[in-house]
Amino acid sequence: MSFELWKTFIESIIKHVDLSLVTFVTHVGFGLALSYIVWVMFWSPKPKETHQRSDDNKAEVVNDVSSSPLWDVFLSFYGKDTRRNFISNLYYALDQAGIVTFRDDPALPKGEKISSRLCHAIRTSKMFVVVISENYARSSWCLDELVEILSSKRKRNQVVPVFYYVNPSDLRHHKGSFGVALEKHKKRHSANRIEKWKLALAEIADLSGYHLEDAEENEADIIRIVENVLPQASRKVLHLDTCLFGIDLAVEEIYQQLSMESNDVRALGICGMGGIGKTTTAKAFYNKYAHKFDVSCFMENVKQNSQGGSPLLHLLQQLLTELLRAKDFKVRDVESALRKLREILSSKKALVVLDDLDQSSYSEFLVRICKLFSDGSRMIITARDLNLPNQLKVELSKVNTYMVRHLNEINSLELFSYHAFKKKQPPGKYIALSKSFVNYAGGIPLALKMLGSSLCGRTNVSFWKAEFQKLKKMPMNDIQKILQMSYDELEDDTEKAIFLDIVFFFVGKNTDEAVDVFKSCDFFPEAGIPILIERCLLTIDWNNKFQMHNLIQDMGRNVIFEESKHGPCRRLYLNQDEACQALPNLGEMDKIEGLIIDLTMSTNKYCNAEIFERLPNLRLLKLVDVHGIKGNITTSFLELRCISWHGCPWTHFPSAIHLQKLVFLDMPFSRFETLWKIAEALGDLVESIAGAILIDSRLNLDEVWRVFKPILSPIVTPDKLELPRLCGKGFLLRKQNEDPAVGSSSMHSVKSNELEADGPTEHSQHASIAPN
To answer: Which residues have CB under 8 Å from 578's CB, separation 6+?
Structure first.
């Protein structure tokens, strides 16, 4: 039937326009084709672009800061019921645990509806702690807040209710004070709004939470709340470069090797040469999968932090601090630390990442913690030594090794171009030269990054060719020499001195302390340190400490070694028997500015006092695992700025040590009772002489000072003594509590105090001579 109609329609058209059948069909076909082309060009919807994220040729953005929550916890409460007691204590406990908490400002004016500021805070919070008190429902503000919270939550465990002396049944059935409050609200608010509030109260009543019924248990309840919130709210997001190449594939391969779905305890060693990207890969995995564990931590620079008097205790404390997110957590001894660690790990699924392990930091620490993990836990270590994961198999049965691969040619070119040109591909005239540099870098990300950064902004092709010729004279596998190019290009000797001092002494140290040292040496750190950071030779971490990639630090050590071979030795590292033999045999000892004596691997834990003779220009001194110094020290150390000696057995400095330019002491776990023993004995002598001079001779204060300066100078300088006007005929020496060598304080600044010829300065505050 339809065919007959179509045939009749065609015949009528042909008869009407007087065309043959072939001609008609041709014209119709041509018209349809032309219409389709026009439709595609002007009216068809554009297909959505699909970006195939390939690990071989695409940059991967791992940490999207813009989507990160601003707040760990949003705290909702009715202020008149709780603000002065429970809420204040809870907020303080959350803050001490490192949880960033939003608490509404009571001074803000309250309107009929919650402000856009509060809505934004709710939408950018990871978790919500809602404290429901007796009068909570009286506030339309609180009820709207609750509705917004419950509509924003994505998982039920994101909301933690605290029923503050109320029965959840009253919320569920709108009884008691909640029923009364809702009835009053009906006079002012719409039925639709009231219904939303009722549903929200019923919903939160059904959530699992905390019931506070006894005021005496408030403190224990707060601890339980914080412990519950902590694992989910305070996820530390580790910083990574914006663009990383090939990282997604590596993360997924690690996921497979760890068999994340299994419920046993497993470990993985991420291994490879320095600069290959072990730490970056571990951080990327941590950022992506830490949320799957009850507790997690990422311990950076384990090797560096394990040096000193009690490495096991220090590492255990650092691990506990990371797991608990506690700012000021302290442990007394190894056993108490292990008990607390067992309490945490035995009942929780944990992810622990230990970055940069070596043999010295491996043995006792890993052996102790391996036995504490509960089912489903995972441990990751990064190390250059491939044998470390194999040693771990003695403690754990399921241990794998992941070798970080070199970047392929495409990814290498993209990484180099990103740092040289700030885009994925180099401009046309630089493509061939860029590929030459990439080939020499050998797929090492750090070398590519540093080479690209050193050429950034260089638009002269001749300069690029000259730089490449310098590279051609070096072995392709000698990454140290490639990295050293950034050091060699430093134009100022003070910049090089700062770099070598940091390599030798200040990696992991507070930047402010180091800057004070550099200033005292006229190194101009305000100009030099930014240049080192720009050249990718140095970084400053979130804790304001100097950090340096292992490969760069090794390069710096090699520079120090080569300088000592071809000229005077300025920085000297001694270990084992060298501490007793090498130094006296060196020539030009007066050129030595830095000295580290490390007896960690030595059976003899004592060094001889004669080592310190003939060192008039020594600026930096560090003693590691040294139990004592044999013999009498007669050196004054007039140029010394820094002393680091953990566990120093001295009760006071020898009288020969003057330390006129000392900037800081790093001497925790020492036995100091006073800085200088002579300071105690001098009190009576000073009192008698001062009385005689001041009263009998009738001299003024300035003249008395000139008499006393030679007597007091050995004890004044390091302790920042102040000499105020004498009162009467007697005075005694008194030290303040800021004594930098007392107790177990780890680092105290001690500014050098230069005695003026015309009397004492007015700015010293650490100690004083007080009236009798």
So the answer is: none
Neighbours of 482 (CB within 10 A): 28
| Distance (Å) of CA 420 to CA 243, 430, 483, 536, 537 | 14, 10, 15, 13, 16
Q: With the CA atoms of 63, 67, 68 and 71 taken in that order, what torsion angle do they form, in degrees rounded to the nearest 10?
A: 170
Per-residue model confidence as pLDDT tens digits over 761-771: 333 333 322 33
How many CA atoms does the CB half-sphere of 471 hold within 13 Å?
23
Would you call 475 helix, strand, or coil by DSSP? coil
Per the CB < 8 A criterion, the answer to whether 619 and 644 are in contact is: no
Q: What is the rounded radius of gyration, in angstroms, for the C-alpha atoms of the chain?
A: 36
What are the catalytic residues? 145
Report which of 343, 342, 390 is spatially closest to residue 368, judged by C-alpha positions. Answer: 342
- Which pTM value belongs to this model? 0.56
3-state secondary structure 644-670: EECCCCCCCECCCCCCCCCCEEECCCC
CA distance 669 to 672: 9
pLDDT, tens digit, 9 for 90 and up, residues 538-589: 889 888 999 988 778 888 988 898 888 777 788 988 876 655 555 555 567 7
Q: Are the C-beta atoms of residues 637 and 718 closer than 8 Å to each other? A: no
Distance of CA 158 to the CA centre of its chain: 27
Residue with tokens 């299994």: 262
8 A C-beta contact, residue 637 and residue 609: no
List helix spans (H) across 629-722. Answer: 677-691, 701-716
pLDDT one-digit tens code per residue, 349-377: 899 999 987 766 566 788 888 888 989 99
Q: How far is CA 610 from CA 181, 568, 573, 585, in A?
A: 84, 20, 16, 11
Q: What is the DSSP string of 135-146?
A: TGGG-HHHHHHH
Cβ neighbors of 361 (< 8 A, separation 6 or more) are 302, 303, 306, 311, 315
3-state secondary structure of 169: helix
Three-state DSSP at 704 gives: helix
Residue pair 625/599 in contact (Cβ under 8 Å)? The answer is yes
Is residue 591 packed enough to be buried (19+ CB in 10 Å), middle (13-18) or exposed (0-12)? middle
Which two three-digit tokens encode residue 483?
């990295």
Q: Which pair of tokens denotes residue 585?
A: 């045999």
DSSP 505: I
What backbone torsions phi and psi does residue 297 show, to the nearest 5 degrees? -155, 155
- Counts of helices then strands in the chain (DSSP H, E): 29, 25
Let me know: does 719 contact 767? Beta carbons within 8 Å. Answer: yes
State how far the alpha carbon of 127 is from the alpha carbons of 76, 169, 288, in Å: 11, 24, 19
**What is the residue-averaged pLDDT of the chain?**
75
Determine contact, residues 267/399, Cβ cutoff 8 Å. yes
Torsion of CA 404, 405, 411, 412, to 10 degrees: 100
Of 323, 276, 281, 274, the closest CA to residue 298 belongs to 323
